[in-house]
């Protein structure tokens, strides 16, 4: 039997990929940036060459993709993915035409993988300017090399760009988006940026000052900023407070471990920034205020007298009533906020001056009392001051003898070093133990001013005023005896303790002479002296 065509039905099928031969193709063009898309004729050139290749191979172009800017650093591009989905769903499309293989992908191995997967489905990627025969092993290898070199070129560009940014950063010039609160007064490509503080920046500076000087919570600061027209949340503030750019320094992940002095205008001083940074690291920011805190100002300020556990608070929503609750597990110590606030106001009343006419005599009595309590400190202050003056006179005399050559350089240096060390030590001791009478009088005036209106100030103040006043009068907070429904003090500010004692003495002995009252007041137990702060 010479004709064996009948046996063709038993021939084995090939294992190679079967390409689609319907003669249809799609064209994909792209540029990397918006500027290139708007100002460059590259897209038109790409489309022209791709159409010419389609005509040369006799291919019918069924759809066009791209025609815009898409970076090929990633293959998750909108138009690129749209094109891939299109060709995979249509069995009659066998070719993707691109101007060059770096237009298809610049991701190296990933681009080669996508091409290989398309080829397995019978779809070939061909370049109008880098034509290779991808049906052969050599051609496929050459196509993959194009993808690899595109990725390598990307990495070279990145390295060059990073090196340039590192150099700029090390010269004190910021790169990237403007930090919040600043704007660039010298815009333009290639120009050195000139950062200036904006209106929002001036408000942010105030936020830095509130944090540093009053240690306000971030929620409080955010609320105050919102009142002034700047909407910013507490989490954003936390990030900004930790950015040394605002004190004139530059840190960046491109220069790890380096801190560079910036050329921009600082918003705050380095000392202020460090002060805030230390506050943030002490954990004080765990205390945050919310709307309910306005109705529960004694939260955490009150502690159980039996176990020391702080009181927290909650609201009964159906009734709109607030309660304080002992935070101890299993505790059933709940107390109406309204009643507890009344008990606290009654306690404040005991530290209130009953009559303005007591202000002048009480001022004198409190001052004399504190002078008496600090006699030793006053005496030591005088001795240290006299000693400093005496040593400074010796230094003047020593310098005079050296000038007139009564002593030589070696003698001058030896005695001067000794005297300077001695005077510095005395000044150091003076700063620790000095008693400033003018500062004391100022503090007493402030305390008396508050003492006339303590309950009213607390009742009418916002959460910030209430908290400050609470800690000013009772620095260690208060205890609460739940069983007896009674507020107890741990420690009272020294001046307010004196006011309460002497005010009661004056009230109970209106006809007595003030000298006796002064003598009696000195018998009051002395507590650690701490000036009132407004």
Automatic annotation (TrEMBL):
Residues 179-286 form the Recombinase domain. CDD domains: Ser_Recombinase. InterPro entries: DNA_bind_recomb_sf, DNA_bind_recombinase_dom, Resolv_N, Resolvase-like_N_sf, SSR_resolvase. Signal peptide: none annotated. Residues 24-172 form the Resolvase/invertase-type recombinase catalytic domain. GO terms for molecular function: DNA binding; DNA strand exchange activity. It holds the Pfam family Recombinase. This is Serine type site-specific recombinase.
């Amino acid at each position: 039997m010479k004709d064996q065509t009948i046996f063709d039905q038993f021939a084995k099928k090939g294992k190679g990929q079967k390409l689609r031969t319907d003669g249809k193709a799609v064209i994909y063009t792209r540029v990397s940036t918006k500027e290139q898309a708007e100002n460059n004729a590259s897209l038109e050139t790409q489309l022209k060459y791709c159409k010419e290749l389609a005509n040369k191979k006799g291919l019918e172009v069924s759809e066009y993709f791209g025609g815009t800017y898409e970076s090929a650093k990633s293959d998750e591009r909108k138009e690129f993915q749209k094109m891939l989905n299109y060709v995979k769903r249509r069995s009659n499309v066998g070719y993707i035409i691109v101007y060059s293989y770096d237009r298809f992908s610049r991701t190296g191995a990933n681009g080669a993988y996508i091409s290989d997967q398309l080829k397995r489905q019978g779809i070939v990627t061909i370049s109008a300017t880098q034509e290779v025969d991808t049906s052969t092993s050599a051609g496929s290898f050459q196509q993959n090399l194009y993808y690899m070199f595109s990725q390598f070129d990307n990495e070279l560009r990145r390295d060059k760009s990073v090196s340039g940014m590192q150099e700029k950063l090390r010269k004190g010039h910021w790169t990237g988006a403007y930090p919040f609160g600043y704007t660039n007064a010298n815009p333009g490509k290639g120009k050195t940026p000139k950062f200036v503080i904006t209106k929002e920046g001036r408000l942010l500076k105030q936020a830095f000052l509130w944090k540093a000087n009053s240690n306000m919570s971030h929620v409080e600061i955010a609320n105050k900023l919102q009142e002034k027209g700047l909407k910013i949340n507490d989490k954003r503030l936390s990030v900004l407070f930790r950015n040394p750019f605002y004190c004139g320094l530059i840190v960046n992940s491109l220069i790890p471990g380096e801190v560079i002095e910036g050329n921009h205008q600082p918003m705050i001083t380095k000392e202020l920034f460090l002060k805030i940074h230390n506050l943030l690291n002490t954990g004080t920011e765990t205390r945050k205020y919310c709307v309910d805190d306005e109705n529960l100002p004694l939260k955490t300020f009150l502690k159980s007298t039996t176990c020391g556990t702080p009181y927290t608070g909650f609201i009964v929503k159906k009734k709109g009533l607030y309660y304080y609750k002992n935070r101890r597990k299993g505790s059933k110590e709940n107390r109406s906020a309204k009643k507890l606030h009344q008990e606290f106001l009654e306690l404040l009343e005991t530290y209130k001056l009953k009559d303005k006419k007591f202000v002048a005599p009480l001022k004198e009595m409190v001052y004399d009392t504190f002078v008496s309590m600090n006699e030793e400190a006053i005496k030591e202050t005088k001795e240290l001051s006299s000693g400093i003056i005496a040593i400074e006179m010796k230094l003047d005399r020593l310098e005079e003898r050296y000038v007139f050559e009564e002593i030589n350089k070696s003698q001058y240096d030896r005695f001067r070093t000794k005297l300077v060390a001695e005077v510095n030590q005395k000044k150091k001791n003076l700063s620790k133990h000095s008693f400033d009478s003018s500062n004391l009088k100022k503090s007493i005036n402030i305390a008396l001013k508050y003492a006339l209106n303590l309950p009213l100030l607390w009742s009418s103040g916002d959460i910030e005023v209430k908290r400050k006043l609470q800690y000013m009068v009772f620095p260690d907070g208060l205890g609460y005896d739940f069983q007896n429904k009674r507020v107890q003090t741990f420690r009272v500010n020294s001046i307010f303790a004196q006011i309460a004692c002497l005010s009661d003495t004056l009230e109970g002995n209106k006809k007595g002479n003030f000298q006796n009252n002064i003598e009696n007041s000195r018998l009051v137990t002395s507590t650690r002296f701490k000036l009132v702060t407004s």
